[in-house]
Amino acid sequence: MRAHRDVFIEELFSQAKKDASIVLISVDMGAPALDKWRQELPDQFVAAGISEQNAVNFASGLAASGKKPYVYMMACWVARCFEQIRYSCAMPNNQITILGNGVGLGYAPAGPAHEPTEDLCYMRAIEGIEIFSPSSEMQVKEIAKNTFTSTALRYVRLERSLAARLSTRKHSPDSSGIEVIEVLKGDGRFKISILASGYILDRAIDLAQQINQETGYSIQVIDVWKIKPLDLRVFENFIKSESSLISIEEQARDGAFGSAILEAVSDLNLSLPTLRLSLNTAFAFENGSREELLDRYGLSISSMIDRSLEFIEKVR
Amino acid sequence: MTLEEKAKSTRRELIKFKTGTGFGHLASSLSVVDILISLYYDEKTWFKHESDQLIWGKAHGGPAVYPILADLGYFPKSELEKYCKVGGILRLHPDKSIPGCNFVGGSLGNALGFAAGLAFSNKLSRFVVILGDAELYEGAIWESLILINHYQLNNLFIIVDRNGLGILGETEKLLKLEPLADKFRGFGFNVLVEDGHDFIKLRACLSKLPNEPTVLIANTIKSKGVEFMEGKPEYHTIIPRDPSEIKKMLEGLQ
Fold it and tell me: What is the CATH number of domain B3-251?
């Protein structure tokens, strides 16, 4: 398994050797894949220091000059330069790619300052931005390649720790950014889609299997790795004959992934009972690994099963 | 027309369209007029509006450039009357939708980093950033100064409109900025401090292309040119609209 940041930066490095307009701005962030870059392409690397606001403003100026800037920072600090993303990039249409490393509880046990649990909420508000939340190396590569061929303001949410069965998954990522990754057959009386992206998708698969065993209902797991804009046509095809939806996210409850799903359901004029499973707080002030914190803050498999079965009982 | 006459006519135009709608920041626009006149009309200064870019930090003062851009043919003069009106192209803060303007306006502290990106990418072009002195409280400015100095972006020239006032009053009484020149020097900049209303002195600062990152601290007077408003912080967002007051303002600029 290779870290997402290394997969992305290696792809980008290969392209940068061919395309001098690519500039990587590091907010004092390193990566093994970056060491070679700094030596071989020093003119396409800018060490901006720990200055997220300046780094994004600077990148906006590069973009306005026809460069293709990538700003590499810890995902938690994207909040710190939200104004610069909104004002200097989105408003005047200066297109940059933000690589945010360590989403969700990925930096545990560093504490809530380092663990962005609301970033999907505030970044979704940026007009015109594309938001990606990959779980596999193949998706990371696909996203990187996508940035080479078309320009847009983008936020790529890179996972710091990886779920093995997802990360090394061999597949051709669907360009719509929505894929059914698991289908568990049932008696067809009641059909449930479980939606998630990134690291937490691993638990979504476990949850699907257990609900399938408990209830015998048909369940599919949908990986929504391009969260904005959400491809409504593809989304509709996957969920239109479902009985209910369950969204899971490593985010605080409001305004993030589950909200995006609810908005899509509403925009499609569908009437689908939806259960939103999320962290029960944005700030996990407790020591523990990512897995342990997920267990303790609302996303243990057992608590998700209990809540899902209760939900199914009510809506079936 | 002499530079002094240009400045007077620019201020008159500015007062006319600002008082016409009452929107924006007349006082902050008036303090920066002479700097703009020096850049745009003094042939001995190196700024060439056709090829160089002016980027507004203190974009609330940016409408001061509208009469100049109209005079230079960037848009019809009739647009001045439509300032901040439906159908007009001139907005309260200049942005790149307006011919002759760049970037966006209205959020302080961000223009310098943006301009640094431009200067880094376009070494053969020149960029002038106009910052307000009260804008210097924004931390992003100082982040950008570090980067500009490191990369020795000599094609980026910073002008601070040092009118000494924030909304609440004098910067030195509210929250000290001084010793300001030393602060910039400490960040590695060549610093010029000059009277921002004296065309001879401005010419001396702007006629020789700098070969190191440079800041011009232009000492100015907020509301310059309208005697009863000059240096008074309460006029930051107040634009006199009483016809007798407007008459008095314009008469003082004949």
Answer: 3.40.50.970
